[in-house]
Amino acid sequence: MPVYDGKELRIVGFLCNWCSYGGADTAGVARFHQATDLRIIRVPCSGRIDPLFILKAFQGGAAGVLVSGCHPRDCHYAEGNYYARRRLELLKRFLPVTGIDPERFEYTWVSASEGPRWQHVVQTFTDRIHKLGPAPLLSEPLTDAEMVEFQRQVEAGRGCGCHI
Amino acid sequence: MRIGVFICHCGSNIAGTVDCAKVADAAKAFPDVVHAEDTMYACSEPGQQGIIDAIHEKNLTGVVVASCTPRMHEPTFRRAVERAGLNKYMFEMANIREHVSWIGKDKELNTNKAIDLVMMAAEKLRHNAPLMAKKFDINKRVLIIGGGVAGIQAALDCAEGGLEVVLVEKTTSIGGKMAKLDKTFPTVDCSCCILGPKMVDVAQHPNITLYAHAEVEEVNGYIGNFEIRIKQKTTYVDWEKCTGCGLCMEKCPSKKSYDHFNNGVGTTTAINIPFPQAIPKKAKIDAEYCRMFTKGKCGVCAKVCPTGAISFEMTDTEVTENVGAIVAATGYDLFDHAKYPEYGAGKYPDVITSIQYERLMSASGPTSGHIKRPSDGKEPKNVVFIQCVGSRDKSVNRPYCSGFCCMYTAKQAILTKDHIPDSRSFVFYMDIRSPGKDYDEFVRRSIEQYDTQYIRGRVSLIYPQGDKMIVRGADTLAGAQVEVEADLVVLAVGAESAAGAPQLAEKLRISYDSYGFYMESHPKLKPVETNTAGVFLAGACQGPKDIPSSVGQGSAAAAKVLSLFSKDQLESDPQIALVNASRCIGCYKCVETCPFGAVKEEQDRFNNPKARVIETICQGCGVCTVTCPQSAIQLQHFTDNQILAEVKALCPSMMVKN
Amino acid sequence: MKGLEELKDKIHEILPDLDLVIGWEQGYDGLHATPLFIKTPEDVDRLIIGPLCVHNLATYLPGLKDKKVGVIVKGCDSRAVIELLQEKLINKDNVVILGLTCDGVINLTKLGRKIGSLGAVDDVKVEGEKLNVVIGDQQHNIAFSEVKQDKCENCIYPNALVFDHFIGEPVDRVENVGAEHQSLSDFEGKSFDQRFAFWKHEMSRCIRCHACRNACPMCVCRDHCVAMTRNPHWLSQENNVAENWMFQMIHVMHLTGRCVECGECERACPMDIPLMLLRRQMNRGVREVFDYEAGIDAQNRPPLLTFKVEEDNISEREW
């Protein structure tokens, strides 16, 4: 499903199940209004988040990536977020060399009780990404006309569907 | 794979701001989706039956339900697909209520977002694999932390249910706050008379092991098999020998020790038994005040003790207990009113807290139940009560209502009249909160039968004038400033989380809110569970609670433990890490990072080093999966492929020009 | 590099107890050295050391884990040995390290730019700070400093940091301490968009030959590299900018806190893609946050395999 032109930008969130996903639920239950751009991927622990998932999202054109886990010392798995903190901090410091504005990536800690804080994080981050605009793309997508032509060739048996 | 997608309206909760039919329509175009429909209430009986029927009719091999948060109903739907004959892990949820319909108003954007979330779930599902749970034995013993009324109730109920109970209490006696109260609302029955027998039951119950003056040091393990290290703090008195005769208290020359039990009203001896009904009734030396420790000589208690129980060389010891479940019942503490300079910040002797007033009224208290004000011991005639001290006040970071202060203030006003018939009581209040059985009637009685004068307004200043305290405040109903000459001012201090609550939460791996109160698993449906399996909550550690609620929660937590232990074996969660031995190069980085020591170094039959996960120890965090550069160790149900599928669904590699 | 004869004597002495010793020998022309696997005393005669000996021989160690191996290392190479020891990827009991002191090795790309073609070089000699390149009857005299590897420009570890036998006398070189490589600060002069466009261009040149990975002493996954499998499916086999970029990201991320900046990836790259820029940036972060360098002390714990409850240089990000 394409991102809504002009209205939304693609923002991917990776949230730990126990704290931040719960915090996002708490914000929802309380009807704390938020921007719609963010799509949340639920993982058990921030320690499960491979920095490569974040780079994969950027590779696929994400305009922003937000990671959130339990506050340090409150990890459901005791130590997962400590490992996450190290990995994510290094990723943030690495990004500038790739030309991806490090502001497009953020990590934070939100507990399951912090609905208002989650709303604040989402709103702040979404506003920031909208200021930065769409992400630079690694590849130029085919134009609509080229897509139609490609489709025609596939149907005529000349193209190869496995590229899709 | 044959995927069925079900889009729940949740009445108007979702359908109000999401076009559910459109989402279902869009889902029909997703890879492997062979069936998609919208449904009114997916979780209802007909809703679940609809899913089961569709699985049978369309030969579905996987199901996506888009509805509320998986933290709510994932278990419900997993059971439903299991009833239809599928493995319950061949199921995914898209959260289009808490994360979509409830937080956005634009129907078009919401619908678009819901379609994305369903696509993510379907893409993940395409990489799901059936998982099988394993069974493991459970240790049917329970640890209860905190010996207040909630902990006592939980301990007694568990013990009566046949469980072995380990009860750990921080102070030297169980009883908690309730033991300090004179009377309880709304019945005005004697607190200690109703609690005392329960305390004795705890002491005498063959199934209960009590560690008083002890603290939980470390918690290891998992549901069914926790290992608890308990620190038995030193008392300098051998409790095996101490009979609680109290002779040492009579002879102790250091009589100016801070009296913790009486909250500083009066003093006690350096060696003391906190109160006559204490359980266990054993003496403890307060080293801060004991002359043997401060001056290096004395030893009177050691001389007089008939059993020779005193030992100045005694040190902290440690015990280890193995249990299968834990109940946290650590209670609350009272707000420190020193944060309010307008109330004297604690420097006026005749401005006291409600709990100190309880001790003044208690027959076992320092004044033997005669209300005497601290400054000169005179009987007060005008008593002013100020409510919401450290409650409902953002300026001191206590925006919440402590719940029980309105009620105990009404009780204290009534008791004041009982003790001193010619006295007058004034109550400054913000609102009266009395939602409980017979609660509002009780407040009315205080006003109507006991002539308590309620003044709606905040107090701006308390200052001394002669031997009186002048209480200046607003009467917002009369629209006037009022000043009351008081002989004694009682501050209705609010509840705050117990000191050390966050530290204990970290040991238990449970969550707590920004005030230090423990988080229940669900605010309505799982009030005594936590998000850590096998750890339950009872009483005011979860939030301010009065006695009936605390007792109710104590019983509820006990019921949860008993039902957990009704089985001999538990099913382990199969969402744990698994090593693909053919990809593992034996670098053992996973062994180093696993927080639980669940990964072991092993050799395969060609002596190649390989990692192996011990299934019962792994908790499923996935730290190892990120550590492994070959992606050889994969957290089941959250594999690289599954998460990548979600990322790719959101951020697809495009058709590109080469 | 000095002490060839001393080195040869030492190898003769230790060879009977070992399965092999890894060094360098002259390659197919006067310009290229190539790794030499010494198994017999006769092989020792072919050994060379000098500015052509660019290869980090530590790369071979994990693959020879069960053998008794001697390995000749320069200062930079020795860091790779240490990092492998830190990660317990090699067994110290099975390795004999012959440490050298080094005053830089040649970057063939730079040399090629100076002399035009690298096709028919007969001989290369170092004479002080001068490099004498012989092509037929032509002689090129080039300042050695102009054709050194980038890593040699601000090298602070000219001597092997770990060794069982040190050959020659260690040299003192402290003038570079703390200096960050110029290439990184130059690159930072560009805007984010320019940097992104730069990599887009470079990745369009990448042919995914995996030479950078194969030369890397830290890429120990070998046949189990995630870039080569469909389970998990991190990368498709498609050769396009986005997938090439992702491949390089995987390589950098898997080197986090482990890269010893030996520069083998960049040297091995047939397309001359400046991969070290990425590594230097990552290592800068590791230095700043953890005050840590990989491959300095075999007792150090790699930063991603441990944590501190209170991190010294990470803010709690209250926003």
Instruction: Decide which structural class fits the backbone of chain A.
Output: alpha/beta
CATH topology of the largest domain in chain B: FAD/NAD(P)-binding domain
Low-confidence stretches of chain B: none
CATH topology of the largest domain in chain A: Rossmann fold
Q: Estimate the mean pLDDT confidence of chain A.
A: 89
**Percent of residues in β-strands of chain A:** 5-15%
Strand content bin of chain B: 15-25%
- Model regions low in confidence, pLDDT < 50 over at least 5 residues of chain A: none
SS elements, strand count of chain A: 4
**Most extensive interface:** A-B, 67 and 64 residues
Query: What is the helix content of chain B?
Result: 25-40%
Question: What CATH architecture label of the largest domain in chain B applies?
Answer: 3-Layer(bba) Sandwich
Helical region count of chain B? Answer: 19
In angstroms, what separates the terminal alpha carbons of chain B? 32 Å
Written account of the structure:
The complex is a heterotrimer of chains A (164), B (658) and C (319). Chain A has helices at 20-29, 51-59, 80-98, 115-132, 144-155; strands at residues 11-16, 38-43, 64-69, 105-109. With 164 residues, chain A is of the alpha/beta class. Chain A has a four-stranded parallel sheet, with helices on both faces. The radius of gyration of chain A is 18 Å and the shape is globular. The two termini of chain A are 14 Å apart. Chain B is of the alpha/beta class. Chain B contains 19 helices and 34 strands. A five-stranded parallel sheet of chain B has the order 10-7-6-18-29. In chain B, strands 20-27-21-22-23 form a five-stranded parallel sheet. The model of chain B has no long low-confidence stretch (mean pLDDT 94). Chain C contains ten helices and nine strands. Chain C has helices spanning 4-14, 75-86, 108-115, 150-153, 182-187, 192-205, 211-215, 241-254, 264-268, 276-290; strands at residues 20-26, 33-38, 47-48, 69-73, 95-99, 123-127, 130-135, 138-143, 165-166. In chain C, the strands form two sheets. In chain C, strands 1, 2, 3, 4, 5 and 9 form a six-stranded mixed sheet that branches. In chain C, 43% of the residues are buried. The interface between A and B is large, with 67 and 64 residues. Chain B: Residues 233-264, 281-315, 575-604, 609-638 form the 4Fe-4S ferredoxin-type domain. Chain B: Keywords: 4Fe-4S, FAD, Flavoprotein, Iron, Iron-sulfur, Metal-binding, Oxidoreductase.
